[in-house]
Structures are given as C-alpha cells and as structure tokens.
Design goal:
Elements lengths: L2 E10 L7 E10 L2 E5 L1 H12 L5 E4 L4 E4 L1 E7 L14 H14 L3 H16 L3 E7 L5 H11 L2 E5 L17 H15 L7 E5 L9 H14 L2 E6 L3 H11 L3 H7 L7 E5 L5 H10 L2 E4 L1 H6 L7 H6 L4 E3 L2 E2 L8 H10 L11 H8 L1 H6 L16 E4 L16 H7 L5 E6 L2 E5 L12 H20 L1
Parallel strand pairs: 1-4, 1-5, 6-7, 6-14, 7-8, 8-9, 9-10, 10-11, 11-12, 12-13
Antiparallel strand pairs: 1-2, 2-3, 5-15, 15-16, 16-17
Helix pairs in contact: 3-4, 3-16, 5-6, 12-13, 13-15
The structure holds zinc ion (ZN).
Zinc ion binds next to strand 6 and strand 14.
C-alpha cells in the first residue's frame, strides 16, 4: 500500500475561494487522503514506527492542489500534431485526422499514447477522458496502466457509410462488441484507475441504430458516454438535415444524454440546449484552444453554467490544439468570455472546472477538497519556478495559477497517492518516447497513409 507524506505545503482545496491552509502537512495512504495538519504527521510517524515505508515530499513554499482533469482528449492523435493548421473541423478530419488514425498499428498507438500521457502528467494532469480510434485501444490502456494515470476511454464508434471513409468504419455490431470486450478486459483494473467509456464519435459519423445501441450498452454496464456535439456549424447543419432535430435534442432522443455523459464542445448551443443538458445532468467538456484553432466558435460557458450545466475543461487532441496543457486551457477559458458582453469567468471558476467539475464529468466519485477520504490526485506547484513571481499582491492564489503559471511550475503530479511525475525526471522513467522513437513512429504512419491514399 502506498504511503505519502507531503510536508509543509500550502493546501488549496478548491472547495470554496477561501479554502487555503498555509504550511500544512498532508498524508495519503492507499490512494486516499487520510489526514492533514498535525494528524498527518502523527499518522505517518505511526506507520513508520510499525515498519511501513512512507515516502516524504518536501513542499515548503509550494502549493498543493487537486490535480487537473482533461475531460476531452484524443491520445491517438498526439503523433498527428503539426499537421494542417488552417482547416475547419470536417475537412481537417477527412484530410488529416481520419487517415492518420487509420494508419496506426499497436506500436505507433503506444508511442502516441505515451507521448500524450507524459505531456499530461508533466502539466499536473492526473485523470483523462480519452477518445481512441476504431482499433488498437488495448495499447491505450496498456500505456495508461504503465504511466499510473487515471484513464477513462477506449475505442471510438463510427459506422455511417454516408459520412465516414471505408478505412475507418466499423459496423455497429463490431464496434459495440469491441467496447464490451475492452470493458471485460480493462474496466476497473489498476486499483480502479482504468475505466471504459462508450464513445460514438459524433452524430454525423454514426447511424441512428448505432447511437441507440450505444446508449443501451452504456446503461446496461453503467459506463460513461463520451461524444462530440455542436462543435462546428456545418456539423450542426448535417445533423439537422438528416434528423430534423437540433444536435443535442437528437442525442437525447436516441438515449445518449444522461448524468454519466460528457459532451465535448457544445459551441453552437442556446437556452433550449442548456435547459436540456441541465435537466439530464449531462456534462460539457469545454475545449477553448481547439475551438479557436479550428475556427469553431466560442462556447457560451457562462450562460451554460448559469443554467446549471456542469462544464469541465479539455485540450482535445494535439492535432488541433496543439498542446495538451491545462494551463493553456484555464487561461483561455477565463479570457474568452471577456470579449463577449455579460461578465467574465473568474480564475476561481475555471480552476473548479479544470479539477472537481472534471472529476464529476469522468464519473469519479469521492468527496471534494483536500480532506480525509478524498482521492489523492494532486499537483504540487512551485511559485518560484518559471516566471510567475511576485505573488504578494493578492490574498488569493487563483489568479496566479490561471494567468501567470504554466507547466514549468509543476514540481510533481500525484495519482492515487503515488508520485507519477517529478520535474527532476522529464523522461518520466522512460514513459516519454525519445525524439527518435517519435520520428520513427511518424515515418511508419506516413508510409501507411500514402498507401491508403493511393489505394
Ligand atoms: Zn475531440
């Protein structure tokens, strides 16, 4: 059983804006926080006295916060980073992403996943909701298991011959059977850190039959549903032409909106959609970096939250962001509403979205705050690293984290009470692929992409 004592940090629990405890210890055992303050030191001493090893981390002058959650990610696209920069969603998918995804084998998928997970861990992320491609999803779970990160994801479902290319299309029956197989094989492993989600790509790429059966499978097995919706205007038009319904209303009609559903983007939405999402207790993964790069638009996050919708944050894939870095997303999420009328999102709001709201969107349970019983998924921030000083002007640290800090401030990332990243080890114990391995894998992808283009 893991035992970790974090000594003398400032604890930022993010339950209320004044949930700040200076110079406090934190003790975690078996993945959960057992105690803070005096009690933490006492429990650690007791454990050591009885002969159990306790890892000690000095955190004096550092800030200890709940780790970030990536509520929308495509690890299979990390190797597709730095492709075309100026396309909108549908041509970008058709020309770069779909052929690239189809070119994966198990090894390139593993390189792509390890690169993305390493980037996440080194930026303070402990948990991800990840959409894979149609094949090689075992490599995603293997990589997540090796990294020790919390991973909810699996294969993507896409079966509509009218809208998807033959090289990346899988009949409903087969796609759902693959999700069920992954569930049998991986769900709940690594002390519960691995979970399978049911993932129809988006309404455009799926038949009505597939969407309905995906909803059934998710309900039968109590799984998270992860999909995209209303990201791009042309996508919304396609769904409306085909179904006569607005995108989210259609997803609801086929039984996909519920309290275990996370919808990425929801950019082109209005009051009717907000009401529906709030009623179904469906979460939205806001991806501001991706929405700007793909010229998708600006998600009305403020209005959504006001209507009672839970909004989390995600980077989307490296192919359209190009970072997998929550610091970039919290900054954009806080800044974007300021160019529209009607108020801002505060630094505090966006940090909640990037942490506790993200955990809820991933279906992760447990109390909020750095309190006994809470999962020990933590990030340790060093305010003296990078370029974020001085931090003396405000009594609250939230603005410093959102507007001044970056991944360079991350001293360590802890998942389930175990240190999975420390800045002294940027290769993360061999998890991060070398530049040679990355280039080799991209070479293999490119040669297969050319072949499929010529076929
Ligand atoms: Zn996406």
């Amino acid at each position: 059983m893991s035992r970790l004592l974090i000594e003398g940090g400032t604890l930022l629990g993010l339950t209320t804006p004044d949930d700040v405890r200076a110079d406090s210890d934190l003790y975690a055992e078996g993945g959960r926080i057992r105690a803070t303050g005096e009690e933490a030191r006492r429990l650690a001493a007791d454990a050591e006295e009885s002969g159990a090893p306790v890892e000690r981390m000095r955190a004096r002058g550092h800030w200890v916060m709940p780790a970030f959650v990536q509520a929308h990610l495509h690890l299979c696209q990390t190797l597709l980073r730095n492709g075309p920069d100026d396309l909108e969603l549908l041509p970008w998918l058709a020309r770069h992403v779909w052929p690239g995804e189809a070119a994966h084998d198990r090894w390139t998928m593993s390189v792509s996943a390890r690169l993305g997970i390493a980037e996440c861990l080194s930026a303070g992320v402990a948990a991800v909701l990840d959409m894979g491609t149609v094949e090689h999803s075992d490599a995603l779970f293997e990589s997540a298991a090796a990294a020790g990160i919390r991973y909810v994801g699996g294969n993507v479902l896409m079966d509509d011959p009218a809208t998807t290319p033959s090289f990346l299309r899988v009949p409903a029956e087969e796609g759902l059977a693959e999700t069920a197989r992954l569930h049998d094989e991986w769900h709940g492993r690594e002390d519960g850190r691995l979970a399978v989600a049911v993932q129809p790509r988006f309404a455009v790429s799926c038949t009505d039959d597939l969407l309905r059966r995906a909803g059934d499978l998710a309900r039968d097995r109590a799984l998270v549903v992860h999909t995209h919706a209303s990201e791009n205007r042309a996508e919304c038009d396609l769904v409306e032409e085909r179904t006569g319904m607005r995108n989210l209303a259609y997803l609801d009609a086929v039984g996909l909106l519920g309290s275990k559903t996370c919808v990425a983007h929801a950019v082109h939405t209005d009051e009717r959609d907000f009401r529906l999402l709030a009623e179904r207790r469906t979460a939205v993964a806001h991806c501001p970096g991706s929405n700007l790069k793909l010229a998708s638009g600006v998600c009305p996050v403020r209005e959504m939250r006001r209507a009672g919708v839970r909004v989390a944050l995600g980077s989307d894939g490296a192919a359209c962001n190009n970072f997998l870095d929550p610091f970039r997303e919290v900054r954009l999420a806080a800044l974007l509403p300021r160019v529209r009328e009607g108020g801002a999102l505060s630094a505090w709001d966006v940090l909640r979205m990037a942490t506790w709201d993200g955990r809820a969107a991933l279906g992760l349970e447990g109390p909020e705050g750095l309190v006994a019983g809470a999962t020990a998924d933590l990030v340790i921030l060093d305010p003296e690293a990078g370029w974020s000083l001085p931090d003396d002007w405000s009594r609250e640290p939230w603005g410093t984290v959102v507007f001044s800090m970056g991944r360079e401030n991350v001293a360590a990332t802890i998942v389930d009470g175990v240190v999975r990243y420390r800045r002294e080890d940027p290769m993360i114990g061999g998890l991060r692929p070398s530049p040679e391995e990355i280039r080799e894998a991209v070479k293999a992808l490119r040669s297969r992409m050319t072949k499929s283009e010529n076929a």
